[in-house]
Design goal:
8 strands; single chain; alpha/beta; 10 helices
Length: 243
């Protein structure tokens, strides 16, 4: 059975889907057959980020209604091992029990499956995720974002030790001027274990246009550290100025 991740956040604008794609790219480049599942009904975006929007015919709702998984699975351009099942373009098409069966099946077909959930407080579908899921809560280094992420995670019906924190859009100078004086303050405020910090970068901001990351860029290194930590390998964070 493959590794299972569910990405969430307390509010929109944290860069949650960018984290999903960045982690997916990293796992795929490590040779793992990786599937991204866009769960944001009516507001899907992963197809745009991966540059496959013009090829879409079927989506997750079609699979749950009986279409084969292969019919709704799209390979990412120029990225071997990375695949996407897009979200329905309208709301209310994901049946929980059908989703449970689907989730278990794809975990037996892929090395890693990443479910990109919408931001907010609708927790119904989390209950139907496989038992080996790890929830990745994405926040920014500001008090509102951290508090919202913590609130969401405190209500998700998944064991607390399976929830990890990712700080996204990190800017060292901005952190020093804010209410948090260091990363440890953010961890303490959230109440969850940190698994990675992703820097603010121009290449992530323009990922929807370019669909790639510099192999040795700061963002790629950040996602590599996250992947290593998720696999159980210890990887220390760089000094705050070097993240």
């Amino acid at each position: 059975m493959g590794s299972c991740y569910a990405i969430t956040s307390g509010k929109g604008g944290t860069g949650k889907s960018t984290v999903c794609v960045g982690l997916g790219l990293t796992l795929a480049k490590e040779g793992k057959k990786t599937l991204l599942v866009d769960m944001d009904e009516g507001l899907r975006c992963l197809d745009l980020m991966l540059g496959v929007e013009s090829r879409l015919t079927f989506d997750l709702s079609d699979v749950l209604s009986g279409k084969s998984i292969e019919d709704a699975t799209y390979s990412a351009l120029d990225v071997p091992n990375l695949f996407l099942i897009p979200a329905p373009d309208t709301i209310g098409k994901i049946n929980p029990e059908d989703f449970r069966i689907f989730a278990e099946r794809v975990l037996n077909e892929y090395d890693a499956v990443i479910f990109d959930f919408p931001a907010g407080i609708d927790f119904e579908l989390y209950k139907y995720l496989p038992q080996n899921v790890t929830v990745l809560a994405v926040c920014n280094a500001d008090p509102v974002s951290v508090r919202d992420a913590a609130s969401v995670c405190n209500h998700i019906p998944i064991a607390r030790d399976k929830i990890k924190l990712i700080i996204n859009k990190y800017v060292y100078k901005t952190l020093l001027k804010g209410l948090f004086t260091n990363i440890d303050n953010i961890i303490d405020e959230s109440g969850f274990k940190l698994v990675g910090v992703v820097p603010q970068s121009e290449e992530l901001a323009f990922f929807t246009i370019k669909h790639r990351l510099k192999r040795r860029g700061r963002a790629a290194k950040a996602f590599s550290r996250i992947a290593m930590r998720l696999s159980g390998e210890y990887k220390a964070l760089p000094k705050p100025k070097k993240i």
